[in-house]
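cron nightly-structures :: item 1 of 1
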Amino acid sequence: MSSAANQPRPVEAVRWPVFSMLLFGSFGTDAPPASQRADLRSRIAIVVYLLVAVVLATVPGVRGGLPGSIDIALLGLLFAFLAWQRWSYSNGLDELGRQLYLEAFAITYLLGLSLFAFFGVLHSLWGWSVNPSVFMVLEPARGVILVWRSRQFGA
């Protein structure tokens, strides 16, 4: 038996679009059609939510008898729908893509928990208030983590 038979085969380089991973946190057009449809539904839901929020906030009389908590309820529904679509997106990916995608979510989740704990300590010790919008940096961080993890597979 030759020694070449015992050598591992080179792994074919995996390439995903960096721009799409950084901006949208997804594999873009390289994702399977089912994942692309889930991504499209997510974007449509965000646009619809933003349009409804703008109309509720700016057009007088549209709100009518709706309570102010309707905004929070709509945002909660949007986040629930987006979570479901992210799950649908990941289910449409191949094994490596799904692993990378879910790892990026897990690392981002742990980063968010760490930030929340850190800000809680700041608030407890010194009474510092931190604007919750700070947590919006987690979504771009997820894109960076996705690029970082994908680059470890030769992309």
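cron nightly-structures :: done
Helices lie at 18-24, 33-58, 70-91, 95-126, 138-151.
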